[in-house]
Design brief:
This protein has 338 residues and is mostly helical. The protein has three domains: 86 residues, Endolytic murein transglycosylase (Dna Ligase, domain 1, 2-Layer Sandwich); 85 residues, Dna Ligase, domain 1 (2-Layer Sandwich); 131 residues, no CATH class. The chain has 13 helices and six strands. Strands 1-2 form a two-stranded antiparallel ribbon. Strands 3-4 form a two-stranded antiparallel ribbon. It has a two-stranded antiparallel sheet with strand order 5-6. The radius of gyration is 30 Å and the shape is elongated.
Length: 338
């Protein structure tokens, strides 16, 4: 009798186990009904239980508890990647789990061109639904964030490296800024290579300001180093840089005007610390976020005795470089081809 009783208990336990196992299999293989896709953001540091609840609340999985048990049984509770995920209608919970574990989150391709200001970059990011422009600029101007990233300035302007990025939609603005700044310092390492010149943070910042002006002045890559040499020669002689790019920066970023097609003589007299026509030396900060060509030109400029340059060919973007003001002025009236 006792053996039969034990056998009966074991059979009942086995039946209960099989029923439970079947229920788990059904729940992990049965998608909840949803007629549309849904996007769910998994925050960094979220616990598996919080993730399961978030998925259940968004009708991605039928049972948060079963989902949690399944992920733990796989030993993958620490492998779920943060990010924004898109789940399709009738997508199996087991497929949803694999997506989270592999990190197949949504990314948005965003191209940040060279020479854009932080304000312009913020608008690009907002138009691509990556972050709000206001939130991005708040992060750019966070002095504590800038200092933590190794920037010797009160903001990150000039250090937002232009590149092609793949961002998580609705990303944290501070992380976006950090990623772009990391791209900047990676570019500096590539540029320096085996060269022995190592700049301290303040000296590097001066070169970044210079590079930001070069970025807005050159058209052809071959001209960038020569433009750098012109500006450095003028700085050494205490001559004003007289860069039209700084005037345009004042007009667009400080006065809120549209970028002018032509800079008039009256514009050169605008009272602003960034106007290098009326102020000697470099402006107080970068006027754009320069790319690798401009950074390299500013860090390792050639030795020349040029003091002037002007656009020679509007179609090719070629500049003419001069040693004296007389030569510079004369070049304005030389017939093309002579």
């Amino acid at each position: 009798m006792k053996a039969n009783h034990i056998r009966s208990i074991m059979q009942n336990l086995l039946i209960l186990f099989l029923i439970l196992l079947l229920a788990i299999v059904i729940l992990i293989l049965t998608p909840p009904f949803r007629s549309e896709s849904v996007e769910v953001k998994i925050k960094s540091g979220s616990s598996l239980r919080d993730i399961a609840k978030e998925l259940h609340n968004n009708h991605v999985i039928p049972s948060s508890r079963v989902f949690e048990l399944y992920v733990r049984a796989r030993g993958s509770e620490r492998n779920i990647k943060s990010g924004t995920y898109r789940f399709m209608p009738l997508e199996l919970p087991i497929v949803a789990a694999n997506k989270l574990i592999k990190g197949n989150y949504i990314t948005q391709k965003v191209v940040i061109p060279e020479g854009r200001t932080a304000r312009q970059i913020a608008l690009i990011l907002e138009s691509n639904n990556v972050t709000r422009a206001e939130a991005f600029l708040e992060a750019v101007n966070d002095i504590e964030l800038a200092r933590s990233l190794g920037i010797p300035a009160s903001n990150c302007e000039g250090y937002l490296f232009p590149d092609t990025y793949f961002f998580d939609p609705q990303s944290d603005s501070r992380e976006l800024v950090s990623q772009m700044v990391r791209g900047f310092f990676a570019a500096i390492e590539r540029i320096e290579g085996s060269k022995t010149e190592i700049l301290n943070p303040q000296s590097l910042h001066q070169r970044v300001i210079l590079a930001s002006i070069i970025e807005r002045e050159y058209r052809l890559a071959e001209d960038a180093p020569l433009i750098a040499s012109v500006f450095l020669n003028r700085l050494q002689k205490n001559m004003p840089l007289q860069s039209c790019a700084t005037v345009v920066y004042v007009m667009t970023e400080h006065l809120g005007k549209e970028a002018p097609s032509v800079v008039h003589y009256g514009d050169l007299k605008i009272q602003d610390p960034y106007n290098t026509y009326i102020n000697r030396g470099l402006p107080p900060g970068p006027i754009s976020n320069p790319g690798e060509i401009s950074l390299k030109a500013a860090l390792f400029p050639p030795r020349t005795d040029y003091l002037y340059f002007r656009l020679e060919d509007i179609n090719t973007g070629k500049h003419r470089f001069s040693h004296t003001l007389e030569e510079h002025n004369y070049s304005e009236i030389i017939p093309k081809g002579l």
